[in-house]
Design brief:
Elements: H1 2-22, H2 29-42, H3 44-52, H4 57-66, H5 71-88, H6 96-115
Helix pairs in contact: 1-2, 2-3, 3-4, 5-6
Length: 120
């Protein structure tokens, strides 16, 4: 039962990752990493397929082998995070503390992204 649930979650995260590759609002990489994790625990064929996929495989292999984030990916992520920080968060109608928490999370995320190596 656990493998079945993990496989369903893997499909779900893979679907979100594919959608995220087409929509700039939704991130791709975190969902693909979750899909790879779920598949590694539930279905080794799907895990191998995703790791060898011609679109997602190279980036996933670089991440798992060396912790590398592609430079173009860093730029794109920075632009999207900047967009959210400058355009979206000021327009959210909520408590100021929630806005502050969101800003801190996004700053932490961008710091994490830029402290990872780009190439090995």
């Amino acid at each position: 039962m656990k493998k079945f649930i993990l496989q369903i979650l893997g499909h779900f995260f893979l679907g979100l990752g594919i959608i995220g590759a087409m929509l700039p609002i939704l991130p791709t990489t975190p969902f693909l990493l979750l899909a790879v994790f779920c598949y590694s625990k539930s279905n080794l064929k799907l895990h191998a397929w995703l790791m060898k996929n011609r679109y997602f495989g190279p980036a996933l292999e670089k991440w798992f082998e060396h912790g590398i984030i592609n430079f173009k990916g860093k730029i794109f992520a920075s632009i999207m995070i900047g967009f959210v920080l400058v355009i979206k968060i000021p327009k959210i109608e909520t408590l100021m503390i929630i806005k502050i928490i969101l800003v801190l999370i996004l700053i932490s995320l961008i710091t994490f992204i830029w402290t990872r190596p780009s190439e090995k």
